[in-house]
Amino acid sequence: MLIALVLHLDLPSLQALEFAASLRAPVLALHVSTEDSDAQRFRQAWDQWGAHVPLEVVVSPYRAVAGPIVNYIEALHAQRPDVLLTVVLPVNQGAAAVAAAAAQPPR
Fold first, then answer.
1. Residue 107 falls within a domain, yes or no?
2. CATH number, domain containing residue 67
3. Cα separation of 65 and 55, whole Å?
4. How far is CA 7 from the centre of its chain?
5. What is the pLDDT of residue 104?
6. Mean pLDDT per segment of 10 residues, for the chain of length 107 residues?
7. Distance CA 88, CA 13 (A)
8. S-S: 39 plus which of 31, 33, 62, 66, CB 3.0-4.6 Å?
9. 57 located within any domain
């Protein structure tokens, strides 16, 4: 399963989704919002865009992004340990920071 990080509906995120879809495996878009209202607005924009890929929204009220992403991926892996998870990061969205956080050994 491919998890594409989508913090904004912008060109780099759409390119990441396009790349993930080109690998011909199930794709899940993962978005982190800082407030419920922001999450709702993103879901509406996602639906207007076409919702071609399933969307999971994580609300992180402390403006943290990397931690909630890593926690979501760890939880998904715990639910489905038999499924290989691959994360696709848009270049301009702090890819290095998220990748570094994801490389930390599990707690």
1. no
2. 3.40.50
3. 16
4. 7
5. 64
6. 92 91 94 93 90 90 87 95 94 59 60
7. 9
8. 33
9. yes
Q: Give residue 96's pLDDT.
A: 55
Cβ proximity of 2 and 25 under 8 Å: yes
Range of the domain at 82: 2-102
Which H or E run includes 48? helix 36-49
DSSP letter at 94 equals T
- Degrees, nearest 5: CA angle 89-90-93: 100
pLDDT score of 52: 81
pTM of the model: 0.80
* Residue 63 DSSP SS3: coil
Report pLDDT for 86: 94
Report yes or no: 18 and 2 within 8 Å, Cβ to Cβ: no
